[in-house]
Specification:
The protein is built from eight helices and twelve strands. With 289 residues, it is an alpha/beta fold. It is globular and about 95 Å long. The chain binds uridine-5'-diphosphate and manganese (II) ion. The site of manganese (II) ion (MN) has 3 residues, from loops.
């Protein structure tokens, strides 16, 4: 009898233990369920359309790898990558395919005959043509447009900031224009000027990485585009002039006191020419770098 009783008691303890375990499990999982529910049903997250011109060079894959692996962490992101080339390359195509990012792959070769040295003009304009059409389809979700060069450094925080944009949002950019930070100056929550040393007479002395524009505005202003007719450094002012005056700009990143994007530049690296070497290395042309 003694042993039977003990067995029953053991079973009761086991049942109680399991109950406690189930209760604890439910209690622990609850925030996760709530979180998912919040994001899918309650939370509306504007899409970010990131427009990136890119061209073939030694460090292209390294730069695009770093950028794409940042972008994989950004929700509701659509990457529009435009190659400066006659044809789309396998390198970029495979890099995009291997990422988990929603993307559109385009290409247009820069017309070198034109005197202007600005990069990315034709590529960004092609992306804007594509985007205008896409925004008028059922998949074309509202959001913001961000012009993002392929060798800059982007904190995830800059993407959080730009989802707040109503018309045009602005923020500081680190290590650009000969400065530690080039930034809009803010008084009483409004942009009152700029701290910029390079061509401070630019209508909008901002870097391309320092603003985002409500995507719908590109439908409202179908003529808005970049131009080769403007002097160097005026591409940002050229596109912004369609949408805003300085007083309309929305200061983000804590009233433009935080740096969440850096105009880093990848050093142009030289490699030895195997043809000129007495003892050339084993051929590695088949290896994608
Ligand atoms: N770019 C391009 N074709 C070129 C040179 C540059 O498509 O011939 C792209 C480049 O990949 C980058 C953007 O245009 O995404 C700006 O170029 P870069 O980063 O060289 O400009 P900078 O750092 O001098 O502002
Ligand atoms: Mn750059």
């Amino acid at each position: 009898m003694h042993f039977v009783n003990l067995k029953i008691v053991k079973k009761q303890y086991l049942a109680l233990g399991m109950l406690v375990f189930v209760v604890l499990f439910l209690f622990n999982s609850k925030p996760a369920f709530q979180c998912q529910f919040h994001q899918e049903v309650v939370g509306y997250l504007p899409t970010i359309y990131g427009i990136t011109p890119t061209y073939s060079r030694l460090a292209q894959k390294a730069d695009l790898t770093r950028l794409s692996q940042t972008l994989m962490l950004v929700k509701n992101f659509h990457w529009i990558v435009i190659e400066d080339s006659e044809k789309k390359t396998k390198l970029v195509e495979n890099l995009l395919k291997e990422s988990t990012i929603k993307y559109t792959h385009l290409n247009v070769k820069t017309n070198k005959a034109k005197h202007s040295t600005a990069s990315g003009v034709e590529q960004r304009n092609l992306a804007l043509d594509w985007l205008r059409k896409y925004l008028q389809t059922p998949e074309g979700a509202p959001g913001v447009v961000f012009f993002m060069d392929d060798d800059n450094t982007y904190s995830l925080k800059v993407f959080e900031e730009m989802r707040k944009v109503k018309r045009v949002g602005v923020w500081p950019v680190g290590i650009v224009g000969g400065m530690r930070v080039e930034r809009p100056l803010v008084t009483d929550g409004k942009v009152s000027g700029f701290s910029a040393l390079w061509k401070p007479y630019r209508p909008f002395p901002l870097d391309m990485a320092g603003f985002a524009i409500n995507a719908t505005l590109f439908l409202d202003y179908p003529e808005a585009k970049f131009s080769r007719k403007v002097q160097s450094g005026f591409q940002e002012s050229e596109i912004l002039k369609y949408f805003a005056t300085v007083k309309d700009l929305e200061p983000l990143a804590d009233n433009c006191t935080k740096v969440y994007v850096w105009h880093t530049r990848t050093q142009k690296m030289a490699i030895l020419n195997p043809k000129k070497l007495k003892h050339p290395p084993i051929n590695d042309d088949h290896i994608e770098v």
